[in-house]
Design goal:
Layout lengths: L6 H100 L9 H54 L10 H16 L1
Helix pairs in contact: 2-3
């Protein structure tokens, strides 16, 4: 029998191989299922870590904003307290001045009460003010009218100068016959030059 295997032994060997193959297939499938489950768990944990990091970041931002708001509130409170203190000091200074004024006016026996003479004086001053306002209004109107007349005079002088230049450029000379119109023109020139 040197090296031959019986049929029965072959069957036992092949059934053992089949069992091992089946066992390794089952183990492989089990390993693959474990790997797949591990990957899913890992992915889930990564997502949870991302979510938690995002929450932490948002919480940090909220805390930063809270710090900024608190600092701003403290600064505003300090400014408000400073303004209130200044107003208090101003109020006290005015109150003291008024108290001193009242004391000097009423405390020494000098009491000022508006009497008929004082009321008349106030009315007279009001009437005088109204008269002066009316006078100012009239003067303003006169100034406006004078400015308007000055503008008209300036314009007239400019027109006369232009006319003079035109006539002198046409070659009318003094040697030529002097007509009444040319005499008037020379008189007009002289008056325009004098007005300057």
């Amino acid at each position: 029998m040197g090296g031959s295997i019986s049929k029965r032994e072959r069957e036992v060997i092949s059934s053992g191989k089949r069992r091992r193959r089946a066992a390794t297939r089952g183990e492989n499938e089990e390993r693959e299922a474990m790997v797949l489950a591990w990957r899913k768990e890992r992915k889930r944990l990564k997502e949870e870590v991302k979510r938690l990091r995002k929450k932490v970041k948002e919480k940090e931002q909220v805390e930063e904003w809270e710090c900024v708001v608190v600092k701003q509130m403290i600064l505003e409170r300090a400014l408000r307290d400073e303004a209130v203190e200044r107003w208090k000091n101003l109020y006290l200074a005015i109150k003291n001045q008024l108290d001193d004024l009242i004391q000097t006016t009423y405390g020494e026996g000098l009491q000022w009460r508006p009497d008929e003479e004082g009321v008349k004086t106030i009315e007279e001053l009001r009437q005088e003010l109204e008269v002066k306002e009316e006078t100012i209004g009239g003067l303003k109107e006169r100034v406006a009218l004078m400015e308007k007349q000055q503008y008209g005079n300036q314009r007239e002088i400019d027109l006369l100068r232009q006319s003079s230049r035109i006539i002198s450029s046409q070659g009318i000379s003094k040697k030529e016959e002097s007509s009444p119109s040319s005499r008037n023109l020379s008189m007009f020139r002289n008056t325009c030059v004098d007005r300057k």
